Amino acid sequence: MENYTLLSVFVAMVFVLNLNFLEVDGRQSISIEEDLEYERQLKILNKPPIKTIHSSWGDIYDCIDFYKQPAFDHPLLKNHKFQMKPNSELKGGRSESGTPIFQTQVESCAQGTVPIRRTRKEDLIRAKYSSLSIEPMSAPKNEYFAGIVYQHDGETFHGATANISIWKPNVNLDEYSMAEISLRSGWDRQYNRIHVGWMVNPLFYGNDTNVRQFTYWTADNGQQTGCYNTLCPGFVQVDGRFTPDLPYEAISVYGGDVVEVQSHVYLDSSEKKWWYVIQGTKVGYWPTEIVPRLSDIGVERIYWGGHSKSNEDGHVPEMGSGQFPNENFRQAAYFTQMQYNDASGTLLDLNYKRTIDVIGCKEQYDMNYYGFLEEAGRRHSLQYGGPGGKC
User: Fold this and answer.
1) What is the pLDDT of residue 102?
2) For the chain, what percent of residues have pLDDT higher than 70?
3) What is the separation of C-alpha 122 from the centre of its chain, rounded to a whole number of angstroms?
4) I want to staple 195 with a disulfide (CB 3.0 to 4.6 A). Which of 88, 98, 216, 275 is the partner?
């Protein structure tokens, strides 16, 4: 009888414990407290729409009143002075390109509204485990980089740009592969970071293997602050067509037409806002309040290149086009017209002596920084990538 009583108590305890957890996406379990917190976040992120757009790729975009977008719910942005465009334009840039550029855009939102991808609870749960590393030279053991780091020598930077070729690497559901420009400033756990580029990330998008543009920011090296795209208050969207996380319609063809996009992040020093510009479209900005060290100190380190994450078995996905650098810009993935801008807003070429080559998993990836190339206006260029496999 005593054993029966103890067994009953044990079963009851297990039942109560199970009641405190919920299963999401058929895999992850979350506590009731976590579930309530996610519900609170969803109310902040999913505002009542003026118009709803159902995309052909399955995402839902809500046209939200500009002044009611989630960015302004950030506690540091309660009295934020917003802008619709930067006060100053960059000087000295080159934009010549012999390749066609295509990009998906959602159906335009009406003037005064901006498109925000509707967030689901599963998005928030996956995002919790998807912070982004910035340290190519000391990356976690399951993350790999192939590109260059450009670091200051007494001079700080105020932005970076490049033309990035768009490819669709083969990626398993528990991996990711991306091409990015990232900017970093600060120290230890107080790194301020901004990343932009494209990625194939089924880990983050829930089995979705579309090639998507992305943005990411954090004020504390991904510990408590920041997120991808518009998954938390912070990034202020100003354009009524383009939004972070849109997939690309056209992808480069090996040996054929190459699709590229010009991406730029720079500081409008008069207003202290970090603008994200893609193919000449000012998508939006990160206010200085959420990345103060980037604005106060300037950028101390820039990275251009590929970035991937392996699965638990140590398998890494394709990076870039899946080909090693080979000097053929129709075959291997690339960054061209790589420049940074100074405090005056002038775009400047790189100093070869201040670049650091970064290659992780050398069996599967490689990079080649060519320096300045006259051909087709490529200017400072690098190729990167590889077939993936076991590391």
Assistant:
1) 41
2) 86
3) 19
4) 216
Smallest CA-to-CA distance from 221 within 140, 124, 277 is with: 140
DSSP assigned state of 324:
-
DSSP state letter for 109: P
The three-state secondary structure class of 237 is strand
Q: How many C-alpha atoms does 222 have within 13 Å on its Cβ side? A: 15
Q: Around 77, how many Cα atoms within 13 Å sit in the side-chain half-sphere? A: 24
Tell me how far CA of residue 219 lies from CA of 136, 216, 385, in angstroms: 18, 11, 29
pLDDT of residue 26: 47
Residue with tokens 């997120």: 227
Pick 132 or 276 by higher pLDDT. Answer: 276
What domains lie within the chain, and their CATH numbers?
37-93+115-136+143-390 (2.60.120.200)
Query: What are residue 226's phi and psi, to 5 degrees?
Result: 90, 170
Q: Give the pLDDT confidence score for residue 76 in this predicted structure.
A: 94
pLDDT per position as a tens digit, 64-108: 999 999 999 999 998 898 889 888 777 776 554 444 444 456 678
H helices of the chain, in order, are: 2-19, 32-45, 121-128, 202-205, 292-297
- Integer CA distances (angstroms), 171 to 50, 137, 364, in order: 36, 23, 14
Please state, in angstroms and rounded to a whole number, the distance separating the CA atoms of residues 142 and 314: 7
- Mean pLDDT confidence for 29-45: 86
Cα–chain center distance at 136: 15
Residue with tokens 């008069």: 270
User: What is the pLDDT of the chain when averaged over all its residues?
Assistant: 86
- Following CA atoms 180, 279, 152, 361 in sequence, which dihedral angle do they give, to the nearest 10 degrees? 20
* Residues 372/379, Cβ–Cβ less than 8 Å: yes
Integer Cα distance of 185 and 323 in angstroms: 32
> Given pLDDT bands bounded at 50, 70 and 90, which one contains residue 28?
low
- Higher-confidence residue of 64 and 11: namely 64
Q: What share of the chain is helix, strand, coil (3-state, %, to 5)?
A: 20, 35, 45
Backbone phi, psi, residue 229, to 5° = 55, -120
- N-terminal to C-terminal alpha carbon distance within the chain: 57
Q: What's the chain's length in residues?
A: 391
Average pLDDT over residues 124-139: 71
- Within 8 A by CB and 6+ apart from 150, the residues are 157, 301, 302, 303, 304, 340, 350, 354, 355, 356
